[in-house]
Design brief:
The protein has one domain (5-224): Rossmann fold (3-Layer(aba) Sandwich), CATH 3.40.50. The chain has nine helices and ten strands. The protein has helices at 16-27, 34-47, 58-64, 97-106, 110-123, 136-140, 154-167, 174-190, 212-228; strands at 5-10, 30-33, 51-52, 55-56, 70-75, 80-85, 88-89, 129-133, 146-151, 203-206. The strands form three sheets. It has a five-stranded parallel β-sheet with strand order 2-8-1-9-10. A three-stranded antiparallel β-sheet has the order 5-6-7, with helices on one face. A hairpin with a 2-residue loop joins strand 3 and strand 4. The longest helix is centred in the last third of the chain and has 17 residues, at 174-190. Bound molecules: cytidine-5'-diphosphate (CDP). Cytidine-5'-diphosphate (CDP) binds next to helix 2, helix 4 and helix 8.
């Protein structure tokens, strides 16, 4: 069967990774969470003391980029890959609200994007990949056969992320999450390099009122139509 590239982009906390994982599993494709890579670089910057009160020591981070080794390691128990930063599993740490608060500022840096985009293109060069992020359909894989652009109301997205973090035992406030989701949308959409925009040929998908199964079924059918063409 023909292999294609699937790009899932969209606003923060729209469930891109849930959809992307479901598609990858069903199609036996590789799933790549590009956001995890930006989160891991952010965690590194925080650990090195390059971020203080939301201010990034940009020159220090850029100078250290060569020291950052990122790797996805497949966890057979969980059924998906986890992010390793310089040999250490950081899957839990990169999902905290603290990292979310700094990640969009790190993701604005040109040198960071150049490094990560090159890695992403390498991971997807054989096709058979589902990648989620902000610039996958526009910059990383502009020729992807299927592009989905996901949106939902800020409140719905904040509730979803709030529940997720509570389940993980994080002590967070709903208002703080809502503010973070909206702030990241703003920075991601207004940055100079590779801003979050819908690719002209992407399917617009507002999932405010669509269940997970229904959402998966609709996009999976799209994928099959392209694969079988
Ligand atoms: O919280 P959510 O799952 O929506 O975000 P994520 O996919 O983990 O991405 C975290 C952040 O990384 C985004 O808010 C962007 O600032 C940045 N990012 C990016 O700039 N480009 C990508 N391809 C993926 C993520």
């Amino acid at each position: 069967m023909k292999k294609i590239t699937i790009a899932v982009d969209g606003l923060s906390s729209t469930g891109k990774s849930t959809l992307a994982k479901q598609l990858a599993k069903k199609l036996h494709y590789i799933y790549v969470d590009s956001g995890a890579m930006y989160r891991a670089v952010t965690l590194y910057a925080m650990q090195e003391g390059f971020i203080e009160n939301g201010e990034i020591a940009k020159a220090d981070l850029i100078e250290s980029l060569d020291k950052i080794e990122l790797k996805f390691v497949f966890n057979t128990h969980l059924g998906f890959a986890e992010m390793f930063l310089n040999g250490k599993n950081v899957e839990r740490e990169i999902r905290t609200l603290e990292v979310s608060k700094n990640v969009s500022q790190v993701a604005e840096l040109e040198q960071v994007r150049t490094k990560l985009v090159a890695m992403q293109q390498e991971m997807g060069k054989e096709k058979g990949v589902v990648m989620d992020g902000r610039d996958i359909g526009t910059v990383v894989f502009p020729n992807a056969e299927l592009k989905v652009f996901m949106t939902a109301s800020p409140e719905k997205r904040a509730v979803r992320r709030y529940k997720e973090l509570l389940d993980k035992g994080e002590n967070v406030k709903y208002e703080e999450i809502l503010e973070n989701v909206q702030k990241r949308d703003y920075i991601d959409s207004n940055r100079q390099i590779s801003p979050l925009v819908k690719a002209d040929d992407a399917i617009d998908f507002d999932n405010s009122d669509v269940g997970l199964d229904d959402q998966f079924q609709r996009i999976y059918e799209h994928a099959l139509r392209i694969i079988e063409k």
